[in-house]
Amino acid sequence: IADEAQLVFRGGSTTDQSRITKALSEGKQDAIEAAADVRAIIEQNHSTTQHADEYRDLLRSLAAENTEFCEESVDAVAMIDEETYVTGGDSGALCLWSVQKKKPVFIHHIAHGIQPTATSTDTVSATAAAADDENSSATRLPTRSRWITALAAVPFTDMFFSASSDGLVRLWRMRPGKTPGFDMVNTIPVAGFVNGLAVRELTPEGSLAVRKDIILAVAVGNEPRLGRWAKEKARNVVRLFHLPANPSKSSSS
Fold first, then answer.
1. H or E segment at 204?
2. Where are the beta strands (DSSP E) in the chain?
3. Span 99-123, mean pLDDT?
4. Of 6, 13, 157, 232, which is the most buried if we count CB atoms within 10 A?
5. Interatomic CA distance for residues 164 and 123, integer angstroms
């Protein structure tokens, strides 16, 4: 019988008040101390800086509401290298795994934000819904995070992409050194549900460049690939992005 190897990701991570508070208190300082080069990239990208500020504001509001998200399924997996993997699931958390550990070595909670809050009275007329404010607040549906719908990594590098339905494909870079973790360094606007990502490096013949151009393929739909419980205003297309080693020359089609 041939030898078999099995790699199991034990999902079920929880995003609760204590973890959100810890992410707020430690996350920013860790990024500054362990990833100075990443911070320099973020500071040059005003859009990414704005998203980072909005993320911290979101964590503060969720911590104040004692919100909790529990992961029930792992929907996307990407390999960084032979020993490091990243997963994403319905809790909206990105988890970094090592083959040497049974639990994630790093978790980035609510990576793509939360879904717009709705109430069970949305289908009722505004007059009837406003008749009793107390009852309306009692039927408020729980806050739900945007689940991670797709992941893709540039093989054997320190970069990977994640996507959901928030209108952005996010580029993450691993923190250098022995400190496990990653930080967002850029975003790509893509409207709709991103149901798939694929990445390929362009290697011109005879080129010895360390940094290479990247082609990113994004499969976009107006509905999630696993069901029809939500709908976005988008076309079912595959979008291609050319991400050059020199960021000032990026293009899309």
1. none
2. 14-15, 69-70, 74-81, 84-89, 94-98, 106-108, 150-153, 159-163, 168-174, 182-189, 193-201, 214-221, 237-243, 251-252
3. 76
4. 13
5. 26
